[in-house]
Write a structure and sequence with these properties.
The complex is a heterodimer.
Chain A: H1 3-7, H2 9-13, H3 26-53, H4 57-61, H5 75-82, H6 94-124, H7 130-140, H8 145-159, H9 165-190, H10 193-201, H11 206-217, H12 219-235, H13 238-243, H14 251-259, H15 268-289, H16 291-300
Chain B: H1 2-5, H2 14-19, H3 21-41, H4 58-63, H5 67-98, H6 105-117, H7 120-130, H8 137-143, H9 160-185, H10 189-197, H11 202-213, H12 215-231, H13 234-239, H14 251-260, H15 265-291
Classes of the chains: A mainly alpha, B mainly alpha.
Chain lengths: 304, 298
């Protein structure tokens, strides 16, 4: 125990000296017990998803779903990936997966590119009125998407992009802008200003400073931005269902259609394999990125 | 900073202005323009296509007479209040437990936070399976011999919203915990020492010293949760589809159905305007508290 405790009157009454530190104190039992119990609540769904997806349908029907599989089979995974049906199409989740890849990659690149340049302009080249637009942008992050759904449908239709992949990419770029611009603005503002001034004295302009000084210095924040965007865009459902035609539906939309379809026998194992497959990309991002993910969350704490 | 001292002629700083075009367009055309457009059209009788024939408050009157909307609002109120209370309480408790200089802190944090990486669709489908009366938790407890055990929120109109709440808390409390933990770590160690010297019990230190000090953190978490609650949509679609019947409908789903399925745009616009209104009620006082006292530039 810390020395400070020894001064308190209650301690003086008892035996003096350092209190022995026991591993199993009542306090520790309470803390670890609670944490373990809560962990069960958090881990149970993941566990159930995994064991269900590895069982055959008869084994599930027989009862205990929570038991580990008696006979491990990867058939549900194969079926979910290549044969599961949505409506008339029976080519599985792979279609949704590749659609999601084709949506996520350009969206992430475009949104980060635009937002980083925006943030840079706001941090180092602020012009009159820039802050007004920035404030509107941040407030816009809190407006429910539902308010802007239909006007964007009209805009995309006018541009001839409604229903396709690129329309959705633009939508993701728009709605990613508030949080990303904030992220980059704050980061560039925190860099020492002397750096920027020295480059100015040497005659570097807007783009030269961005490309040669800011970009190489801000790799960590780009990684954070990539984490935020990849998970956010991969997990999106609303924009996918509103702004794309069925053949371009992202993975989340297709997954929902497969699992919640009313016709046919409910194949629980295939459903769980499909669910796990859809969750796999963000889970991998999460477990690989670790601390950076937490940092992204802290940065995104202002996000709506 | 640099902004004020710079000359403000139009062509000065041109590259920065060109670079900001996407931001300006997004802010003006989408956020401001789109919002105004929707609010204006909520006063029209648009159905399949938007048209400017004004009918006053008709859409709103109809909206507030529709049982489905009323249920949506009631659900949102219950879900919102409870998820606000529980995610703040659970988030803070978990953060406080993790802050006791325990071992395996990283492991526990990883476990509590991973659901946040998953989408609401995945969350909803997993919990639909877990709450399945035949195979899920109810089935498990019954197989232990407790035959009359009943826990089937997704099939009971009266408690279906609590089934959604359980899933939402599973997905979201990790985030609140993370924010709270960051807040707790920001508290000066000396405050703890001082409290201990004064012999104040730990729970009192938390309640009367630490929590009041963490007010900004709580407000951030509150705004974050609140703005998420209004939007709750995917979770309901995946977990219950609004059922049984219409007992787990939410406003965001009403808007989607009216706009893209029922071909009743006017209703959709009116409903989304009501959603906007509810967000403003939360947002304006917060913005006032947060930025009101601060001096503004530009």
């Amino acid at each position: 125990m810390a020395d400070v405790t020894a001064i308190s009157p209650a301690e003086l009454a008892g035996p003096s000296g350092r209190r022995p530190r026991r591993a199993i104190s009542r306090r520790n039992v309470f803390i670890y017990g609670t944490l373990l119990l809560v962990s069960v609540y958090y881990l149970l769904p993941l566990y159930l998803m995994i064991v269900t997806s590895l069982k055959g349908l008869p084994e599930i029907r027989m009862g205990n779903v929570f038991a580990p599989p008696v006979e491990i089979t990867f058939e549900p995974w194969v079926k979910a990936w290549a044969q599961a049906c949505t409506g008339l199409n029976c080519d599985g989740l792979s279609r949704g997966f590749w659609n999601s890849v084709r949506i996520t990659v350009p969206s992430v690149i475009l949104s980060i590119l635009i937002a980083s340049i925006n943030g840079y302009a706001l941090a180092n080249w602020r012009f009159r009125g820039a802050n007004v637009f920035f404030t509107i942008l941040i407030f816009g992050a809190f407006i429910p998407y539902q308010v802007m759904l239909y006007p964007i449908v009209i805009m995309l239709r006018e541009l001839g992009l409604y229903g396709g992949l690129w329309g959705l990419v633009i939508v993701h770029t728009i709605f990613g802008m508030p949080i990303l611009t904030l992220l980059f603005r704050n980061y560039f503002t925190s860099l020492p200003e002397e750096l920027f001034k020295a480059a100015r004295v040497d005659g570097a302009g807007f783009w030269a400073i961005y490309l040669k000084i800011m970009l190489p210095m801000s790799l960590p924040i780009f990684v954070v931005a990539i984490i935020i965007q990849v998970t956010g865009i991969w997990n999106d459902f609303l924009f996918g269902i509103v702004y794309t035609r069925p053949e371009y539906y992202p993975m989340t939309v297709q997954l929902n259609n497969i699992v919640n379809s009313v016709q046919g026998v409910k194949e629980y194992n295939v459903n769980m394999a499909a669910t796990l497959l859809t969750g796999l990309v963000p889970l991998i991002v999460y477990f690989v990125s670790g601390k950076l993910f937490v940092r992204g969350i802290a940065a995104g704490a202002v996000k709506g | 900073m640099t902004g004020q001292s710079r000359p403000n002629r139009l062509l000065r700083n041109l590259s920065a202005k060109i670079a900001s075009i996407p931001m300006v367009l997004t802010a003006l055309c989408v956020f401001v323009g789109g919002t105004i457009w929707t609010v204006v059209y909520s006063f029209t009788d648009s159905r399949l296509l938007p048209r400017l024939r004004f009918v006053g408050l008709d859409q709103y009157e109809r909206l507030w007479r529709t049982p489905r909307w009323l249920i949506s609002i009631e659900n949102l109120a219950i879900f919102g209040t409870l998820s606000l209370i529980f995610s703040l309480a659970i988030g803070f408790l978990l953060a406080a437990l993790l802050d006791q200089k325990i071992r395996f802190e990283n492991t526990f944090r990883t476990i509590f936070l991973y659901p946040f990486a998953l989408s609401f669709i995945v969350t909803g489908l997993v919990w639909q399976w877990l709450l399945n009366p035949d195979f899920g938790i109810q089935g498990l407890v019954r197989s232990w011999g407790w035959e009359s055990f009943t826990f089937d929120p997704l099939y009971n109109q009266d408690i279906v919203i609590y089934g959604i709440l359980i899933a939402a808390l599973w997905q979201g409390t990790g985030l609140v915990m993370c924010i709270m933990l960051a807040g707790l770590r920001g508290i000066d160690e000396d405050i703890w020492k001082a409290a201990r010297v004064d012999g104040i019990p730990m729970w009192k230190t938390y309640l009367f010293i630490v929590i009041p000090m963490m007010r900004p953190v709580f407000i951030t978490a509150l705004v974050l949760i609140a703005s998420g609650i209004v939007r709750v949509y995917d979770l309901v679609v995946a977990q219950t589809g609004g059922g049984p019947g219409i007992s787990s409908e939410v406003p965001a789903k009403y808007v989607y159905n009216m706009m893209f399925e029922a071909q009743n745009l006017g209703q959709g616009f009116a409903a989304s305007t009501m959603m906007l209104l509810s967000v403003l009620i939360v947002l304006i006082p917060w913005a006032y508290l947060e930025f009101g006292g601060r001096k503004r530039h530009g």
